[in-house]
Every structure is written in C-alpha cells, then in structure tokens.
Specification:
Elements: E1 14-16, E2 22-24, E3 32-37, H1 44-55, H2 57-62, E4 65-71, H3 75-85, E5 91-94, H4 101-105, E6 109-110, E7 115-116, E8 118-123, E9 129-135, H5 143-151
Parallel strand pairs: 3-4, 4-5
Antiparallel strand pairs: 1-2, 3-8, 6-7, 8-9
C-alpha cells in the first residue's frame, strides 16, 4: 500500500549519485522532478528504463524537469553501471543505506525482495506529487506518458 498520493507534498531526502555527489531533493524547488525507481542495476528492463531517461534528457530540460534514477544499489555499482550504459546527464541515486529508506518512506519498498517497486513519481515545482504510477517488475514504463504529464 502506498504511503504517497497525488497532491501530497513529497517527503524530502538526501541521497548520493553515481559520482558520490549528494543530491538534496528540496534543492530542486522551482523545477519538476521525475523520480524513476527501479529494482536493481544490471538488469535488462532497469537498463532500458535508465537509458530512456538519458535519451530524453533534452526534453526534460526543455520542460523544466530533472530526472533521477533510484535503486538500492551501492554507489560503486551505480558508477560502473552508468559508465556501461553511457549515462552522463542522468543522476543515478543510491538508496542503499539505510537500505531502501526513501523507497520505504514512499511506500514502494518490496520487503521480501529487498528492492523498490518499479515506479515513477513526478513532483511539481512546489514538491507536490502530480503523478504516481507503479509497474510490474518486468514492465518498462512508457516514457511518452511521462512526457505528456510534464507538458501539462
């Protein structure tokens, strides 16, 4: 069951990206933010999901949006995976320790597997949730649907 719903102000977080830079969610006030959760790095669907964020970087920029990929993988794994996938613009955030803390706070942590649910959350310029969708583990999120939400 989800801990978040449309219209709520999203809970803040601080996570490190693949370059060990700290990302503070509330530093992005004034921009829309796409939080794209994926279960694990080094898996096919997760790779396609993160590559779609990277490939649409310019569209996100034009729509005043920052996209983040988030999973429970540790930073060294995120760094190697970003290099392998050719990801240079998209920050891949590590929700590694405390393990899955952000995913838990948002109600999308899968206790049995120890990973987050595949999900996209979009927040507006005031950190209010305007879109939330969960996906089956093997399902690639439709990036065109995300773009339509951002264009509204």
């Amino acid at each position: 069951m989800s801990e978040i719903k449309i219209g709520d102000k999203i809970q803040d977080f601080r996570l490190k990206d693949q370059k060990q830079n700290e990302v503070h969610l509330y530093d992005f006030a004034g921009k829309k933010v796409l939080l794209s959760f994926h279960p694990l790095a080094w898996t096919n669907v997760c790779a396609e999901q993160m590559k779609s964020l990277e490939e649409n970087h310019e569209i996100f920029s034009r729509l005043n949006t920052v996209a983040f990929g988030i999973s429970v993988d540790p930073i060294p794994s995120k760094r190697a995976w970003a290099k392998e996938l050719g990801i240079t613009h998209t920050k891949l955030l590590s929700d590694f320790w405390p393990h899955g803390e952000v995913a838990r706070a948002y109600g999308i942590f899968r206790e049995k597997e120890g990973v987050s649910q595949r999900a996209n959350i979009i927040i507006d310029e005031e950190q209010k949730i305007i879109f939330f969708e969960e996906y089956l583990t093997h399902e690639l999120p439709d990036i065109s649907k995300i773009e339509k939400v951002l264009e509204q």
